[in-house]
Design brief:
single chain; about 375 residues; alpha+beta; Dna Ligase, domain 1; Rossmann fold; 3 domains; about 35% helix; about 25% strand; binds guanosine-5'-diphosphate; binds manganese (II) ion
Length: about 375
């Protein structure tokens, strides 16, 4: 789950990350009041769940409360990469000497938390990785002992950070690592982390991706911005379905993330394009299947649907009942191909015989059929 910059800063500040004073405003007048209260130049920043706000005009420096009001007036309501700006962060401005990049991320390859740093700060890290991969330095934290000071110094040295900032940088790196672990984040990114001529270090931006699997340990739900979420992705989550919308025209209802990926691959192999990734999960009930189908058919691009169910804990007859009951509820009809194998497959097929569905035996056949009918 992605959270806003202001939320990330609220979570990170108590860990000791140096974050300039800030508050959130929902109107230009509010932005002016905050700037007046701070009594110094501020930065007004769009709060949307995408990066590159600076380039899009969503970050503005304001030297007076009036300028802050004007900046907020321009930024609020702005569309940044399809996200409407509803709130701005008003933060004390910092005089930047140099911008750096620092992040902590769960690295699946090494099965560790790694810290990445670069002196190409302020630029999107993907861009740096493409243009100057040698400018990104990494260290791996020990899963039991954490991040050592010498590792932070290694990063600082590799990115030519002047020695006078070393002590503060070490503290920042450790705090970043600690906050990732304590919040069960998969990423905590500070871009830019900046130095000032006065010898200080500040985290000017913050991005955090929280691991949904750890939601029960924290109160993540209250951090979720429902207004910024795709309504169908939200409905799917509420029903316990993993759903990601894609650009193709073949809807997929599958149980198990691995099978869902394989199904998408086979559809592509047969020359089609999946409209979504969808995992109804293990042991899905009829109601879940019905919800999944409704979500898929709400996408007007969908021209055909493939059900690929491997009955293990999930029972095929239960899924079949879900399909039949869903067909009774949805208004839009498209050709549907069903492949059911495993627990109670006979019962499942029997239930489906009454409905107008195309049955397939193998995954290969099912994918070929659905691609074929999607073209008719
Ligand atoms: P992003 O573009 O969405 O990553 O937003 P950032 O928060 O990273 O802001 C973009 C850029 O605005 C930064 O890289 C800085 O160059 C600049 N910026 C942000 N805050 C300040 C500040 O307090 N002072 C100054 N001078 N520039 C800032
Ligand atoms: Mn940034």
């Amino acid at each position: 789950m992605n959270i806003h910059e202001y939320q990330a800063k609220e979570l990170l500040a108590p860990h000791g990350l140096p974050i300039p004073r800030f508050r959130v405003a929902a109107s230009p007048a509010e932005a002016r009041e905050i700037a007046a209260e701070f009594g110094q130049p501020v930065v007004v920043k769009a709060q949307v769940l995408v990066g590159g706000r600076g380039k899009a005009g969503g970050v503005k420096l304001a030297r007076s409360p009036q300028e802050a009001e004007a900046a907020a007036g321009q930024i609020l309501g702005m569309d940044i990469k399809g996200h409407t700006v509803r709130r701005v962060l008003v933060s004390e401005a910092v005089d930047i000497r140099r911008e750096y990049y620092l992040s902590a991320v769960v690295d699946r390859g090494s099965k560790r938390v790694i810290l990445m740093a670069s002196n190409e700060g302020g630029v999107e890290i993907e861009e740096v990785a493409r243009q100057h991969p040698e400018k990104i330095v990494r260290v791996e934290a020990d899963p039991f002992l954490g991040l050592f000071d010498y590792q932070a110094r290694e990063l600082a040295l590799a990115m030519d950070l002047p020695k006078s900032y070393l002590r503060d940088f070490t503290r920042v790196a450790r705090a970043l690592y600690q906050s990732l672990v304590e919040w069960d984040a998969s990423l905590v990114e500070i871009n830019p982390l900046v130095t000032t001529d006065k010898g200080a270090i500040w985290a000017l931006d913050a991005k955090m991706v929280l691991d949904d699997n750890a939601a029960w340990r924290h109160s993540f739900e209250q951090l979720r911005d429902l207004s910024a979420e795709d309504p169908f992705e939200r409905e799917a989550r509420e029903k316990g379905i993993s759903y990601v919308k894609l650009d193709g025209n073949i809807g997929c209802v599958v149980n198990g993330a691995g099978l869902a990926m394989a199904t998408m691959d086979v559809i592509k192999l047969k020359g089609g394009a999946p409209a979504n990734f969808l995992d109804i999960g293990g042991g899905a009930k009829a109601e879940t299947v019905a919800a999944a189908l409704a979500i898929i058919l709400s996408d007007v691009n969908v021209k055909a649907v493939l059900f690929n169910i491997f009955g293990g804990i999930t029972r095929c007859d239960e899924v079949a009942r879900g399909i039949v009951s869903a067909l009774g509820q949805v208004s839009r009809r498209v050709p549907m191909v069903v492949r059911l194998v495993g627990t109670n497959e006979e019962e499942g097929r029997e239930i489906l015989r009454q409905a107008e569905l195309i049955a397939a035996q193998s995954m290969d056949e099912a994918a070929a059929r659905v691609v074929e009918v999607s073209r008719q």
